[in-house]
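histidine kinase
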Amino acid sequence: MPQDQTDRNEPLREQAEAKLREHGPVAPAPAPQDPLALLHELQVHQIELEHQNEELRRALLEVEEARTRYLDLFDFAPIGYFTFDRQGVIQEANLTGCHLLNVPRERLIGRRFLVFVDPDSRSHFTALLKRVFESPEKRVGELRLLRQDGSLFWGQLEIVAENLAGTPGQHCRAAVIDITVQKQAQDEVMRLNQTLEQRVEQRSAKVRELSEELERFTYDIANDLQAPLRHIQSFTELLAKPGGLEDGQSERYLEHIGHSAQRMQGLIAALMDFSRASRMRMRLTHVPLDQVLREVRKKLEPQWSVRGVQLTAEPLPVVQADSGAMQLVFRQLLDNALKFTREQPQPRIRILSQETPGEYVIGVQDNGVGFNMRYRSRLFGVFQRLHSGREYEGTGVGLATVRRVVSRYGGRVWAEGKVGEGATFYVALPKQPVDLD
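Predicted structure tokens:
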């Protein structure tokens, strides 16, 4: 027997000798050829073998316990574990991986993992699997995966090939993590960023628009206020001219000065109305526009009854707006329609209503003098008039006020018309108003 084997068996022999002594006195070792010596050796070897078997049973039990603990850790790990071959066929899968795909383990083993990959991600998985067997580095990818019931979820795969003696083997191990919540959070952040960019762009556009409007506003105010000021100054100088005035001239000059002063007062009052419309507090409530129309019509009743205006209205919606603001809009539009149907023997005004997926569109149509569509861009500007003040009174602020109020909701205004055939002024109010101020 080799020396190292003898050394390993020495403790067992000592244990065997001790066990023999437990059963009574041990005879002295007989001569080698003595049958008693052979019997003694056989008894010792038998006991040695029993001890070896006992140690093997303990070792086997420890291995089984370790294997059970490993399988528990493997199966109930918080992430899915899979083993693939080079073709992506599933060789092993833990319970978490089976739950992720909603497939029992016995129906999962032997199937290609590609079956559980969304078609849009399959080329990505194929390339990922190929690269894993080409080099020992761990590969990471994000894929859309399919459960057995057809539902989708985002999975992060970490794949590494098994290396045998420094060379890639025939299998790889993959860890799969459900990252659907993280992807949704990323998408939400991207959506919020995009929304923020849109809001910044909208506000920037609004600032540019207001800046341009302020520039036009300043220019128009200067032009419109200069005319009555020049008249007042001119007639004041004439009154102060030495040499006296002819009979009646002073009265006419004073009349012109008074008219110019009234014109300035009217312009200043219109500017104040426009300013109030720009600064008025908007309280969003459910506003029935039919009721708004009735309230405005009551205020305009003297003009309706005297001129015999025929007013018809389609059913109007309930909108998210401020009641006072909507009354101001309807008042200005109806005032405009009444003014420009003055020469009509049978004036007609019609209120139109239309609903789109995102807006309520209200139109005020009249059979008045109309306008040339080439000049429609001037209609909603401050102090912009397509007809002279001698023909039709007004300051040119009414429609600008309508535009200003509606734009504060994120709405829009426009007009259509034809000379001598009337006009229609439209207001589009968003179903979900946004105050851009």
